[in-house]
């Protein structure tokens, strides 16, 4: 099939051949909507409604506090972590789902800095390296922690992946990167970057917010040190769903952080006045868990068990290839700038284009039922979730985009919403 001359009928044929197509029926998607924002908030698995009703009506409503034991609430963070682990190349008892990505970043950064401080050359390792274009909360958490510690730590912001080679040296304590950049969709070579960090004695912390459930991740193969990520994007856990944190077995004994809440205690119901850290991955927990939100995450994870990350990745690349080609063919005269890498090895599962009136165009698309999102500066971002995005969705989205651009069917002076 010549992708430069692809038709709507060709897209229908691709959907008929798609081995993941049937999984779309397990999601609640409005009939007239083309949803290309699963990289911000995943669609609702139909099973999530029944699961929430079960937790609210039966486990909470009927069984009340006995559900901590009877319904397994106490072990839910670990049990869900074990379900998630295969999607990111983790082993059993290395992942817990808990708190937010920001809070988990705080824990992981604190643990990494403490581990480094205990090394023979720890006094000279005072630099955290991250991207200036990293998702802001990652930078903010590093800034907040290092300022609070007041021990001379510095944050070195790089402006391109190529700067890593010269930036990492004997003064680097931690390299903290997002595996897939939230703006551009640039995909780092995790194994290569981690090896470079380790070569200089630095630790490597990966944010998988735009990776988990969308691209193949193998934390163990890459020899990564820590990882965090959210569950409400490609994992379809629901708005504000708790996030996850990964600590490999080799680091668990050294993993300590200041948020020593009772759920991380070795015997929380012993009610001891002094904190004694649990010897396993539960040391990454803090306080009492949000059970209703946690429970709904399982509905999304169960869908992943019906396929493989390699199949998901294959479709992701096919969807994004098609979108890029169609946009560049049908919208060629509108000065759109592709900021997402063309190379498969460097591309995540969303595609970003720049346009002078990007926000206005996105709002016009949303009014047409094509939901993407806007990111500064002047970026239109479109996410492709292989579990439910179809090839016809791609065709129809570009059809709407080209019509809006060709006929200037957008309000360049539109007032922005609080959430863009």
UniProtKB/TrEMBL annotation:
Its cofactor is pyridoxal 5'-phosphate. Pyridoxal 5'-phosphate binds at residues 101-102, 135-138, 178, 207, 210, 232, 262, 288. GO terms for molecular function: kynureninase activity. Keywords: Hydrolase, Pyridine nucleotide biosynthesis, Pyridoxal phosphate. The keyword Hydrolase applies. SUPFAM superfamilies: PLP-dependent transferases. Pfam families: DegT_DnrJ_EryC1, KYNU_C. Pathway: Amino-acid degradation; L-kynurenine degradation; L-alanine and anthranilate from L-kynurenine: step 1/1; Cofactor biosynthesis; NAD(+) biosynthesis; quinolinate from L-kynurenine: step 2/3. InterPro entries: DegT/StrS_aminotransferase, Kynureninase, PyrdxlP-dep_Trfase, PyrdxlP-dep_Trfase_major, PyrdxlP-dep_Trfase_small. It catalyses: 3-hydroxy-L-kynurenine + H2O = 3-hydroxyanthranilate + L-alanine + H(+); L-kynurenine + H2O = anthranilate + L-alanine + H(+). Its EC number is 3.7.1.3. The modification N6-(pyridoxal phosphate)lysine is found at residue 233. Belongs to the kynureninase family. Belongs to the DegT/DnrJ/EryC1 family. Homodimer. Catalyzes the cleavage of L-kynurenine (L-Kyn) and L-3-hydroxykynurenine (L-3OHKyn) into anthranilic acid (AA) and 3-hydroxyanthranilic acid (3-OHAA), respectively. This is Kynureninase. It comes from Undibacterium flavidum. The gene is kynU.
């Amino acid at each position: 099939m010549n992708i430069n001359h692809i038709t709507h009928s060709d897209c229908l044929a691709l959907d008929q051949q798609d081995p993941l197509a049937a999984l779309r029926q397990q999601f609640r998607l409005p009939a007239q909507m083309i949803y290309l924002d699963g990289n911000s908030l995943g669609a609702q698995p139909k099973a999530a409604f029944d699961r929430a009703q079960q937790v609210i009506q039966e486990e909470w409503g009927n069984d009340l506090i006995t559900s901590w034991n009877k319904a397994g609430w106490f072990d839910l963070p670990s049990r869900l972590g074990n379900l998630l682990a295969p999607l990111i190349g983790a082993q059993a008892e290395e992942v817990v789902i808990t708190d937010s990505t920001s809070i988990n970043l705080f824990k992981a950064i604190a643990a990494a800095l403490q581990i480094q401080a205990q090394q023979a050359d720890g006094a000279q390792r005072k630099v955290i390296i991250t991207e200036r274009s990293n998702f802001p909360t990652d930078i903010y958490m590093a800034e907040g922690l290092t300022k609070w510690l007041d021990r001379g730590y510095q944050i070195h912001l790089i402006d391109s992946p190529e700067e890593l080679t010269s930036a990492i040296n004997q003064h680097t304590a931690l390299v903290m990167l997002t595996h897939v950049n939230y703006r551009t969709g640039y995909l780092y070579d995790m194994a290569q970057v981690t090896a470079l960090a380790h070569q200089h004695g630095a630790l490597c912390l990966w944010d998988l917010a735009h990776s988990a459930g969308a691209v193949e991740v193998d934390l163990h193969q890459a020899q990564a040190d820590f990882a965090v990520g959210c569950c409400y994007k490609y994992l379809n856990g629901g708005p504000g769903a708790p996030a996850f944190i990964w600590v490999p077995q080799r680091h668990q004994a050294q993993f300590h952080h200041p948020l020593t809440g009772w759920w991380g205690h070795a015997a929380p119901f012993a009610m001891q006045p002094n904190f004694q850290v649990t010897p396993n991955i539960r040391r990454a927990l803090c306080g009492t868990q949000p059970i209703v939100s946690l429970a709904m995450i399982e509905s999304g994870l169960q869908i992943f068990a019906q396929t493989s990350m390699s199949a998901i990745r294959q479709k992701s690349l096919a969807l994004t290839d098609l979108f890029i080609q169609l946009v560049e063919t049908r919208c060629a005269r509108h000065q759109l700038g592709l900021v997402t890498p063309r190379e498969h090895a460097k591309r995540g599962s969303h595609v970003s284009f720049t346009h002078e009136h990007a926000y206005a165009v996105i709002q016009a698309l949303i009014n047409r039922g094509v939901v993407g999102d806007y990111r500064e500066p002047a970026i239109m971002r479109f996410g492709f979730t292989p579990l439910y995005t179809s090839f016809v969705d791609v065709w129809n989205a570009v059809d709407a985009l080209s019509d809006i651009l060709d006929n200037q069917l957008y309000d360049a002076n539109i007032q922005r919403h609080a959430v863009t």
